[in-house]
Amino acid sequence: MSNRILIVAGGTGGHVMPALAVCKGLRERGFNCKFLTDMRGRALLEKIVPEQKVSTISASSPVTGNILKRLLSIYKLSFGVIQSVFYIARFRPFCIVGFGGYPSVPPLIAANIFQLPGILHEQNARVGRANLFLATRVKTILLSWKNSQPLPKNTTVKFTGLPVRDVFFELADYQEKSEFNTDRPCHILIIGGSLGAEVFAKLIPKAISYLPEKVRRSLTITQQVRAKKQSELEAVYSAMSIEHFCSSFFTKLPDEMAKADIIISRAGAASVAEIAAIGRAAIFIPFPSSLDDHQTLNAKSLTDEKAAILVTQKEAESSPTILTKELLSLITNPRKCKQMASKAGELAHKDALNKIIVSIASCQKTTVESTK
Question: Which residues lie below 8 Å from residue 145, measured CB to CB, with a gap of 6+?
Answer without folding.
Answer: 124, 125, 162, 297, 298, 301
